[in-house]
Each structure stands twice: as structure tokens, then as C-alpha cells.
Amino acid sequence: MKISTENGTTANKAAKGFKWKKWVAAGAAVLLVAIVGFNCFTVVEAGHTGVVVTLGRVNEGVLQEGIHGKAPFVQDVIKIDNRIQKLEVNTEAFSKDLQSVKTVLAINYRVDTSKSYSIYKNIGADYENVLVVPAVNEVLKAITARYTAEESVTNRALISDGLVVGLNEKLNELGLYVTDVNIIDFDFSEAFITAIEEKQVAQQQLLKAETEKQTAITNAQAAAEAAKIKAEGDAAANKKLNESLTDKVIENKKIDKWNGELPKVSGGSGTIIDIGGITGEEKGQ
Asked: What angle do CA 100, 102, 106 make, to 5 degrees?
């Protein structure tokens, strides 16, 4: 009886062990099928394209947005972002007058969907640092050299437009398109900034002196014009007065002004003769 019990116990343990192994094998099989099934499909997100790589070889053409099948463990799908991307570049160049100009740029660019595979094949996933950044530095240096440092500040729009044109000429053929370039900041040496400030002060002083000079000239001209007008008015009044003075008018003026006394005449010996008195005596006689 004892031997029989031990055999039964051993058989039960063996049966349980077999069932456990069976479940483990089944679970592993399900997991393997899931892994294989998961690797049979790929999802390309909106705004992206998929570059298919088969055993290290880049396939021509790209996968568009959506779900796509692929060979598991044989093919990989590299996702390329085709949306507009922003790149900020800090660079330094020399102006036409040999001033050092430090510039901060914000570049908006995108990858052409039809050339995603060629960019990945020829450049790799780090195309931004391999292509875009060096192109920005090269084009900016060429454009900065056309302007003096002071002109760079006043011609920001022209420099931005020139960067867009120059970058597209270099990058379009490769499948990269620059849509916009913004100049965030210009920075110059301390010596140049000081010189600009001194120039502005001198210009302001010159403008003030010119304004004062012009004001003085204007005031002098106004005074001269006023004097001329007054002289012309006086001359016209005198002319009119002279034309109005007839003999009768002059006699009337004399009569109006006469106080009724005849003038006194001084004789040769110092005697004063009162003509009025004499006249009165004669009248009395």
C-alpha cells in the first residue's frame, strides 16, 4: 500500500508539471504570434512619410499616412516629419565694412514628401545638421558681406528675403524647402555700438544747429518782409497825401493853424516891430 501511494503522488506531480509546461509553451506561442503580427504592420502618422528599409537597403518611394504592412524582422520603416519645422541658428559673419555681426536666425523649412527616401538614403536622419545649418551659415555670410554693419540693421527685410532665395537655391534640389527666415537679433562689437551712438549724437546736434539757423533765417525774412510792407504802405500813404494837397487845401490848413497874431519882425538895430500892433494902430486911426 505504501509503494502504491508514492507512485500515485509521483504521477500527479508529473501530470501537473506537464500541464504547467503546456501552458508556458502556449503563452510563449501566443506572445510570438503577437510579436510577429505587430511587426507585420506599421502606422505612419499625419504629416509624416515612411521610408522602408529592407535588410539595410532603402527602398524607393515612401509610405503615406495610414496603416501599412511590412515583412517582420526584415523591413524597418523610418518616419520622416514633413511638417514645417523651425530651426534656430546662431552664426557670425563679417559685414562689408569688416565689422563682426552676430546674428540669430529662425528658419522655417520642410522636407519634400517625394524625396524623403533619397534624403534618408544619401544624408541620413540628421539632415538638419548635415545640410540645413551649413547652408544657412554659408548664405548668410555671402549676404552680410554685401552690406555695411549699419545697413544690415536698416535692411533686415532684404536680408531675410535674400536668405530665403539663397537657401532654396541650395536645398530645393535635395528635397528641402525653406518657407521663411526671421532675423531675431543682430549683435555688434562694443566699439561699433559706441561709434554709432556718437554718430547719432553728432547728427542730432547738427540737426539742431540747422533748425536754429533756419529759424533765424525765417525770422529775418519775416522781419524784412514786414519792413518792406510797412515802407510800401507809408510810401503809398504819402503819395496819396501829396496828391490831395492842392493850393486851397494848403491855405485852409494855414488858416486852421493860425492863432490870429501877426508875426513879429526884428529890425536892423535890434528893435522888434510888432506888425500886429502897427496894423491895429492904423486901424484905430
From this structure: 150
Question: CA 105, CA 138: separation in Å to the nearest integer?
Answer: 13
Residue 56, C-beta contacts closer than 8 angstroms, at least 6 positions apart: none
Each residue of 52-88: pLDDT tens digit? 998 888 888 888 988 888 888 788 898 999 999 999 9
Question: CA 36 → CA 31, 41, 55, 69, 269, distances in Å?
Answer: 9, 9, 17, 12, 160
210-230 pLDDT, tens digit per residue, is 877 888 788 878 888 888 887
Closest CA to 145 of 104, 189, 96, 98: 96
Q: Find the DSSP H helices in the chain.
A: 2-38, 116-122, 127, 133-144, 149-154, 156-171, 190-244, 247-257, 275-284
pLDDT digits (tens, 9 = 90+) for 246-257: 666 666 666 666
Give the span between the Cα atoms of 84 and 79, in whole angstroms.
15
What's the predicted TM-score (pTM) here?
Answer: 0.58
Nearest alpha carbon to residue 105 among 83, 145, 133, 147: 133
